[in-house]
C-alpha cells in the first residue's frame, strides 16, 4: 500500500547540502523478531487462510486489456516471476499487502521491501509498530502459491525509520526500505533454494538509468485500466523506462535520493523492486531501489506543484539503495 506523501523538487544547491546529512546520520539496522518459534510460524500460516488472502484482491472490471511502458502485466515465466512476490501482513489491525523481492543472500532467506511494509505508523503518523502476520508468497498469482508460503522470522529496518511521522518526507523517505528474513518453507527448504533464483542487489549506483519496476498493485492510477487483473493484486505488473530524479518542491522537499519511472501502479506495489541492467529473457537484474510513493512531472520535466496533477505524468519513486543506509540493513538481514 502506498501511503507516502505526494511531494515534489528543491533546488540543486539544497540537494547537494542534504546528501551528506543522510550519509552521516547516526542510524543503523534494528532486527525485530517476528515469528521465530514453530508455534508462532504456524499461527501466521493459520491466520492467512485462503479467504483472508482473497479478501485482499480487488474486484475485476470490464475494462479492455491495455498495456504500456507505464503499466502492464508481466507474463514471461522467468526468474522475476519467481523472485518477486506478495508480502502479506497486518498493519495496526488491518490486513494489507506489499511487494517484496528475493535477493541473493548468505542465508538464502532474505527479501527486500519498503520500510512501511515492515514497520508503519497509524493514519495520524503516530504509534509506529512492527507489522504482524508477515508472510511472503513468491510468484503469487490468482490466489495460487506455486512455491509455497514463507513466514517472516525477522524484520530489519533502519532506526531512523522507526521514528517516521508520515509528514517529514525530507527527513524520513530515504529510510523507507527494509528487509525481511524468512523461515524455511513447509518442507524445510530455504526460500532461495525453493525458487532456484535470486536478484542481485546494488548500492551507490547512478539513479539516472533505464529501469524496470515490479509490483502487485491493488489499484491503477489510470481509470481505463482500473480493475484489470494486474491492478487487483491478483497478478504481477511492471513499468519500464528512464528513471527520473524526484526531490520535491521548494515548499515540500523530499529526500534527495528518490528515483523512479512513469508508472500507474497503485497501492500494493510498495516495496516492489526498481531494477536496472534487467535482462528480460532471464528475468534477472540488479535491484537498486524500492517503490514507496508517487511524484508528478509536467511535459517539460518540471515537478508539478503539490496536489496538482492536471497535465502531469505520475512517476512511482523511492529511495536509491546506498552503502550508507541499505548495505548495513542487508548485512544484518543476510546474517540473521
Q: Secondary-structure blueprint of this entry?
A:
Layout: H1 12-24, E1 29-33, H2 38-47, H3 50-54, E2 72-73, H4 79-83, E3 84-91, E4 94-102, E5 110-113, E6 119-120, E7 129-130, E8 132-138, E9 150-158, H5 169-172, E10 178-182, H6 191-195, E11 200-201, E12 210-215, E13 237-242, E14 244-249, E15 252-262, E16 273-279, E17 284-290, E18 293-297, E19 313-319, H7 326-334
Parallel strand pairs: 11-17
Antiparallel strand pairs: 1-9, 2-13, 3-4, 3-8, 4-5, 5-10, 6-7, 8-9, 9-10, 12-13, 12-16, 14-15, 15-19, 16-17, 18-19
Region (Disordered): 56-75
Keywords: Signal
Protein name: Peptidase
Fraction of residues in H or I helices: 10-25%
Evaluate the radius of gyration. 18 Å
- Strand line-up of the largest beta sheet: 3-4-5-10-9-8
Structural class based on helices, strands and sheet pairing:
alpha+beta
Helices, by number, come to: 7
Unreliable stretches covering 5 or more consecutive residues: 1-25
Task: Give the overall form.
Answer: globular
**How many separate structural domains?**
1
Largest sheet: 6 strands, antiparallel, barrel
Report mean pLDDT, rounded to a whole number. 91
**Strand-residue fraction?**
25-35%
The tally of strands reads: 19
Distance between the first and last residues' Cα: 27 Å
Q: What is the chain-wise order of helices and strands? A: HEHHEHEEEEEEEHEHEEEEEEEEEH
Protein name: Peptidase
GO biological process, one term: proteolysis
GO molecular function, one term: serine-type endopeptidase activity
InterPro entries: Peptidase_S1_PA, Peptidase_S1_PA_chymotrypsin, TRYPSIN_HIS
Amino acid at each position: 500500500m502506498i501511503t507516502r506523501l505526494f511531494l515534489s523538487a528543491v533546488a540543486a544547491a539544497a540537494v547537494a547540502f542534504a546528501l551528506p546529512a543522510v550519509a552521516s546520520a547516526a542510524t543503523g539496522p534494528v532486527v525485530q523478531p517476528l515469528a521465530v518459534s514453530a508455534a508462532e510460524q504456524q499461527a501466521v500460516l493459520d491466520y492467512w487462510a485462503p479467504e483472508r488472502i482473497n479478501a485482499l484482491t480487488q474486484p475485476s472490471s470490464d475494462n479492455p486489456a491495455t498495456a504500456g511502458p507505464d503499466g502492464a502485466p508481466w507474463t514471461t515465466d522467468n526468474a522475476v516471476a519467481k523472485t518477486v512476490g506478495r508480502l502479506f501482513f497486518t498493519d495496526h489491525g488491518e490486513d494489507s499487502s506489499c511487494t517484496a523481492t528475493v535477493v541473493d543472500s548468505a542465508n538464502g532467506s532474505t527479501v527486500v521491501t519498503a520500510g512501511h511494509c515492515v514497520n508503519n505508523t497509524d493514519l495520524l503518523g503516530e504509534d509506529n509498530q512492527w507489522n504482524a502476520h508477515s508472510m511472503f508468497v513468491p510468484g503469487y498469482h490468482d490466489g495460487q502459491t506455486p512455491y509455497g508460503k514463507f513466514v517472516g522470522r525477522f524484520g530489519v529496518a533502519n532506526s531512523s525509520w522507526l521514528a517516521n511521522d508520515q509528514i517529514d518526507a525530507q527527513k524520513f523517505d530515504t529510510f523507507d526500505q527494509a528487509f525481511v528474513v524468512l523461515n524455511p518453507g513447509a518442507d524445510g527448504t530455504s526460500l532461495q533454494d525453493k525458487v532456484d533464483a535470486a536478484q542481485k542487489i546494488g548500492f551507490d549506483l547512478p539513479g539516472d538509468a533505464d529501469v524496470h519496476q515490479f509490483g502487485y498493485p491493488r489499484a491503477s492510477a489510470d481509470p481505463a485500466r482500473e480493475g484489470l487483473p494486474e491492478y487487483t493484486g491478483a497478478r504481477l505488473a511492471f513499468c519500464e523506462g528512464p528513471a527520473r530524479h524526484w526531490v520535491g518542491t521548494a515548499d515540500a522537499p523530499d529526500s534527495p535520493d528518490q528515483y523512479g519511472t512513469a508508472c500507474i501502479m497503485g497501492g500494493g506495489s510498495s516495496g516492489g523492486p526498481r531494477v536496472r541492467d534487467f535482462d528480460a529473457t532471464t528475468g534477472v537484474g540488479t535491484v537498486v531501489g524500492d517503490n514507496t510513493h508517487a511524484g508528478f512531472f509536467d511535459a517539460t520535466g518540471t515537478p508539478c506543484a503539490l496536489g496538482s496533477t492536471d497535465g502531469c505524468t505520475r512517476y512511482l519513486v523511492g529511495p536509491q539503495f546506498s552503502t550508507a543506509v541499505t548495505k548495513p540493513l542487508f548485512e544484518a538481514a543476510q546474517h540473521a
